[in-house]
Specification:
This protein is α+β, with helices and mostly antiparallel strands. The chain has helices spanning 2-8, 18-25, 106-115, 118-141, 146-150; strands spanning 29-33, 38-40, 47-52, 54-60, 66-73, 77-78, 92-95, 99-104. Helix content is 36%, strand content 27%. A four-stranded antiparallel sheet has the order 1-8-3-6. A four-stranded antiparallel sheet has the order 2-7-4-5, with no helix packed on it.
Length: 151
């Protein structure tokens, strides 16, 4: 059952008819990661969908210190940029608990886009929302006074 939910709970795919979701599900690979196990690293080019559990996404500083970027939970995904030939040069993903991941390769994702053009529109919509959130965050962080940020 978790395998079907993997696609159904992701905003990128959950608007599709059940038959299209099943076709995409058939293109995915499933793996269960143990706590602290590395899910992805620089150079990986897949879409990672969290079916259950959670992972942390981080970068390493020059000194090797982790810089946490976000925590992904059930229904979240990471790697959409890599599906469009933007390489992952810096991001790592590590399971915070036992975590089931559905992986969709670049080739399988492109096949899904060709068969379901509405995915492309939804992807653009979600990317625009993420960009707007990042712009708000950058604006907030660029405020000159610490007091304003704390307020």
């Amino acid at each position: 059952m978790a395998e079907h939910l993997c696609i159904a709970q992701v905003p990128l795919f959950n608007h599709l008819p059940i038959e299209a979701q099943q076709e995409i599900m058939n293109l995915t690979h499933h793996h269960i990661y143990k706590k602290n196990e590395l899910v992805f690293q620089p150079g990986d080019e897949n879409l990672y969908i969290i079916a259950s559990g959670s992972i942390k996404v981080y970068q390493l500083s020059i000194s090797g210190k982790e810089h946490l970027l976000r925590v992904l939970k059930e229904g979240d995904y990471e790697g959409e940029k890599q599906l469009f030939n933007i390489s992952n040069d810096t991001l790592f993903g590590q399971a915070l608990e036992e975590t089931e991941i559905c992986t969709l390769t670049q080739q399988a994702f492109h096949q899904a886009l060709l068969e379901n053009p509405s995915i492309a529109i939804k992807l653009l919509e979600l990317s625009a929302k993420r960009t707007a959130q990042l712009e708000k965050q950058a604006q907030f962080l660029s405020m000159e006074r610490v007091e304003e940020r704390l307020a």
